[in-house]
Model the fold of this input.
Amino acid sequence: MYTYPAIFHKEENAYWVEFPDLQGCQTHGTTLSDVLELAQEALGLYLVSLEEDGVTPNEPSNIKAFQTDEDSFTTLVWTDINKYRRNTKAVKKTLTLPQWMNEEAEKRHFNFSSLLQSAILQELEKPSN
Done:
C-alpha cells in the first residue's frame, strides 16, 4: 500500500489531479468521486511502471508542504499496486504439507493453486513490519 499527497484542481466542469512528488503522474475527471478513483489508478500504474523499470519512487512529502489556491486542495491518495501489476504469468511452486491435511483437502476437492494464491494475497494485504 502506498500513500502520496495529491493536489486536486477544480476547473469549469472538471477536476484534474497531480502528484507533486511523482513527476508526470496526473489525471482528470468530471466529478470529484470519479477523479479520486482515477487518481488511485494513476498512482498505482505510475508506481508499477517505476517498479518495472527498477526505479525507486520519491518518498512522499509532508502534506503540509503544499500551498493551494481557492480552487484547489491537497489530500492523501492511497493505492494498492498489486491491483495494477501485469506480470500474471504462472510460476510452478513445490510445497510440503502434512499427509492428513493433503488427504482432507483432496476429499473436499480443494484447488491447491487457487487456495495458496488467495492465502498469499491475504497476507500481502497486511502491513509489513
